[in-house]
């Protein structure tokens, strides 16, 4: 799947985690979204792991800086 | 998979949550209903936040249960455990307010009488010390005596916390046993290395288990759950390093449920009675149709053995104080027969405190069982293989627990155990005697019909009845049903394949096979109708049979509509219905009278005929969508 194909699922997970709509774009970072702290970050990660049956590596998590990074890692992990 | 697998998967979760939020004053009961769904951690967190936003964080007025003030005390990150605990409590009708110590400060909180914990005055304290904390300082180079001293110190420190909590608050104390988070250094014989952290935690666990009883402490046995689900379902090493979460986020709904069931048990709110469906739950097959000999039960097949194992589990539960009852759609005599005569039945009539077998809807029968046993409906757990019955009971009686089970009886003991319905903190002599007391007191009153809102349930089922004329593809199934159906069978005429083919070829007869679908899926072919024109141009209903699975769902009047249409197509003026009594078809004695037929004649054997004039026939309105297909 292409990176773009993950945005609908990401939008759904962000909506569930933040309980409101979050307009996602590749350069969106945690600083841009009120409430996106390290705990919410873990919720997003674990929700994605459950949804796709994958496990993020510590290095992959450390290298995430924005939503685009997240989509890129997802695309890489789910096509591997 | 450390999840809530016994709860039903939410349909339209977002819509249901919005509906809850949209009401001006959302009710506590509607929040409880949402908590009784299979929620993952995201949904658990969302529900928790929504309920707190709409109902506030104080207990609702008039709450029937004692408000819970839970102190969550520990050494790692605990905040992510809170939503699961509050929702687990909500699931049991309990309101929980949760306090959490500042990071790592549990001992200061307990020992300092000026602390925030003391101001909070907990009714329950949960001591959740992680394995890394408990094994701190232990290392492989330790001498045996140093390791033994370290063990003593850790155990005494934990027991000291218990005593501090007891002295300070006199509250329920729950000790979480640590997750076995360490990798072995030796391997299979890890216990031979005195300074092994893995072996050390195993010893701490064993010691705490041994000390808890005398100290009046209840255990949260995470080690048992790890044995069941695997460590990786409960602990995520990466998230420990990242956020010091010992319990993995994905496991928090179950963790919270485990805490809540211990609190509920302490309040005496565990379930008390297991109500069993019979056909395909306690034995394989339908006793009314298959007969005693046709039941799948006992040695000789894996399925038969699985039913025996489930019965054995139920009997073990009853021997430790859980009341057993039966709620079955059957003639009572048929339902009782296996209990009295089948050699492989583990459960005997004497094990069942209240035995209800009739054709009323199960919600009404469960009300009767609760009344007869003089316990609340919220003390009943009802197990049934049939999704229709489960959904009906959940809608009509939301306080009755109905585990979501498959059609494989192998899974039933685990479903009941994992759900923790019968969580108990001690076993008393009274428990062991209870089952027989209830049986002595049981009432044998005939059931009174109780009003149940069936129409709204039936409407929500989205039933679709697909009918087709007999055809070669369905021939085998048609013949099988004609020869096997005993209970809902008006004439019990048995036909061969050749007989059925003759009906297919006869222009003055019809044969219909009916399939029923609903939102739970396809029930398969559930009814067979055969009609023949007589010399007098009446339509004789030669065969009308139906699976008892679909009783009470308006299939009967819908079938009559089809028969009438076929009869009119063939030019009939009247329908003639026959009833030929057998040992097993007593339930349809009044079938035609119920459908508005007038009595025509009867003979000495009890066989009777009834008639319906088609000139004035108005098709019945039902909740079933009818299609030819």
Notes on the protein architecture:
The complex is a heterodimer of chains A (80) and B (629). Chain A is mainly alpha-helical and 80 residues long. Chain A has helices spanning 7-18, 38-52, 58-62, 67-79. The longest helix of chain A has 15 residues, at 38-52. Chain A starts with 6 loop residues before the first helix and ends with a helix. The mean pLDDT of chain A is 93. By secondary structure, chain B is of the alpha/beta class. Chain B is 41% helix and 17% strand. Chain B is built from 25 helices and 17 strands. In chain B, strands 15-16-14-13-12-11-10-17 form an eight-stranded mixed β-sheet, with helices on both faces. A five-stranded parallel β-sheet of chain B has the order 2-1-3-4-5, sandwiched between helices. A four-stranded parallel β-sheet of chain B has the order 8-7-6-9, with helices on both faces. In chain B, a hairpin with a 5-residue loop joins strand 15 (598-602) and strand 16 (608-613). In chain B, helix 2 runs antiparallel to helix 3. The longest helix of chain B has 26 residues, at 144-169. The radius of gyration of chain B is 30 Å and the shape is elongated. The model of chain B is unreliable at 440-451 (pLDDT under 50). Chain A binds chain B through residues 13, 16-17, 19, 38-39, 42-43, 46-47, 49-50, 56-58, 61, and chain B through 40-43, 45-46, 49-50, 79-80, 236, 238-239, 241-243, 245, 248-250.
Topology:
The complex is a heterodimer of chains A (80) and B (629).
Chain A (H helix, E strand, L loop, with lengths): L6 H12 L19 H15 L5 H5 L4 H13 L1
Helix pairs in contact in A: 1-2
Chain B lengths: L12 H10 L5 H8 L5 H15 L12 E7 L7 H10 L4 E5 L5 H6 L4 H5 L3 E5 L2 H4 L9 H26 L2 E5 L20 H19 L2 E3 L1 H8 L1 H4 L2 H7 L8 H15 L6 E4 L10 H8 L7 H18 L3 E7 L2 H10 L12 E5 L3 H12 L6 E4 L3 H10 L15 H8 L9 H13 L12 H7 L2 E7 L5 H10 L12 H9 L3 E10 L2 E13 L5 E8 L8 H15 L4 E6 L11 H4 L3 E5 L5 E6 L10 E5 L1
Helix pairs in contact in B: 2-3, 2-4, 3-4, 4-13, 8-9, 14-16
């Amino acid at each position: 799947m292409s990176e773009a194909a993950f945005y609908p699922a990401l939008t759904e997970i962000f909506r569930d985690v933040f309980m409101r709509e979050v307009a996602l774009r590749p350069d969106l970072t945690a600083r841009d979204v009120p409430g996106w702290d390290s705990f919410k970050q873990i919720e997003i990660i674990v929700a994605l792991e459950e949804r796709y049956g994958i496990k993020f590596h510590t290095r992959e998590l450390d290298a995430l800086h924005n939503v685009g990074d997240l989509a890129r890692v997802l695309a890489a992990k789910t096509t591997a | 998979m450390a999840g809530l697998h016994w709860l039903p998967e939410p349909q339209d979760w977002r819509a249901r949550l919005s509906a809850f939020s949209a009401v001006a004053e959302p009710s506590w009961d509607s929040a409880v209903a949402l908590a009784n769904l299979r929620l993952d951690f995201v949904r658990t967190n969302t529900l928790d936040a929504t309920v707190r936003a709409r109902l506030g964080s104080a207990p609702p007025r008039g709450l029937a249960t004692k408000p819970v003030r839970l102190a969550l005390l520990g050494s790692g990150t605990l905040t992510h455990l809170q939503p699961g605990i509050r929702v687990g409590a909500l699931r049991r009708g309990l309101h929980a307010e949760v306090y959490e110590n500042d990071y790592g400060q549990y001992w200061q909180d307990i020992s300092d009488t000026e602390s925030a914990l003391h101001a909070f005055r907990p009714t329950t304290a949960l001591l959740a010390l992680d394995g890394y904390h408990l094994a701190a300082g232990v290392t492989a180079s330790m001498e045996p005596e140093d390791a033994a001293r370290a063990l003593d110190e850790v155990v005494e420190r934990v027991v000291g916390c218990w005593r501090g909590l007891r002295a300070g608050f006199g509250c329920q104390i729950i000790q979480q046993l640590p997750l076995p988070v360490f990798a072995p250094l030796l391997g299979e014989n890890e216990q031979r290395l005195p300074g092994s952290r893995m072996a050390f935690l195993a010893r701490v666990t064993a010691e705490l288990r041994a000390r808890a009883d005398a100290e009046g402490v209840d255990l949260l046995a995470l080690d048992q759950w790890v044995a069941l689900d695997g460590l990786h379902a409960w602990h995520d090493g990466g998230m420990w390093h990242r956020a010091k979460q010992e319990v993995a986020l994905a496991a928090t709904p179950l963790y919270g449920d485990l805490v809540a069931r211990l609190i509920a048990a302490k309040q005496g709110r565990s379930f008390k009675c297991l109500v069993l469906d019979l056909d395909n739950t306690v034995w394989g097959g339908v006793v009314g149709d298959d007969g005693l000999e046709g039941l799948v039960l006992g040695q000789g097949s894996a399925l038969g053995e699985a039913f025996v194992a489930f019965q054995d589990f139920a009997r073990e539960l009853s021997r430790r104080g859980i009341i057993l009852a039966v709620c079955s759609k059957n003639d009572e005599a048929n339902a009782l027969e296996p209990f009295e005569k089948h050699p492989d039945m583990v459960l005997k009539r004497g094990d069942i405190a209240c035995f209800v077998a009739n054709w009323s809807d199960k919600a009404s029968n469960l009300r009767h069982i609760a009344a007869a046993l003089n316990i609340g409906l919220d003390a009943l757990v009802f197990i049934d293989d049939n999704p229709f019955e489960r959904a009906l009971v959940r809608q009509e009686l939301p306080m009755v627990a109905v585990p979501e089970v498959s059609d494989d009886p192998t899974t039933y003991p685990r479903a009941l155990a994992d759900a923790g319905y019968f969580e108990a903190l001690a076993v008393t002599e009274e428990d062991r005697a209870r089952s027989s007391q209830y049986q002595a007191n049981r009432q044998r009153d005939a059931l009174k019909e109780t009003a149940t809102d069936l129409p709204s349930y039936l409407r929500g089922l989205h039933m679709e009845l697909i009918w087709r004329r007999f055809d070669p593809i369905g021939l085998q199934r048609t013949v099988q049903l004609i020869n096997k159906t005993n209970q809902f069978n008006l004439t019990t005429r048995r036909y061969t394949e050749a007989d059925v083919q003759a009906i297919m070829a006869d222009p003055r007869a019809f044969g219909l096979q009916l399939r029923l679908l609903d939102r739970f899926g396809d029930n398969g072919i559930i009814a067979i109708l055969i009609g023949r024109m007589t010399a007098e141009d009446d339509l004789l209903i030669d065969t009308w049979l139906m699976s008892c699975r679909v009783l009470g769902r308006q299939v009967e009047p819908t079938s009559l509509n089809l028969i009438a249409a076929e009869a009119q197509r063939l030019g009939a003026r009247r329908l003639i219905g026959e009833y030929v009594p057998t040992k097993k078809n007593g339930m349809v004695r009044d079938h035609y009278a119920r459908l508005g037929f007038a009595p025509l004649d009867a003979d000495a054997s009890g066989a009777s005929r009834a008639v319906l004039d088609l000139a004035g026939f108005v098709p019945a309105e039902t909740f079933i969508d009818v299609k030819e297909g």
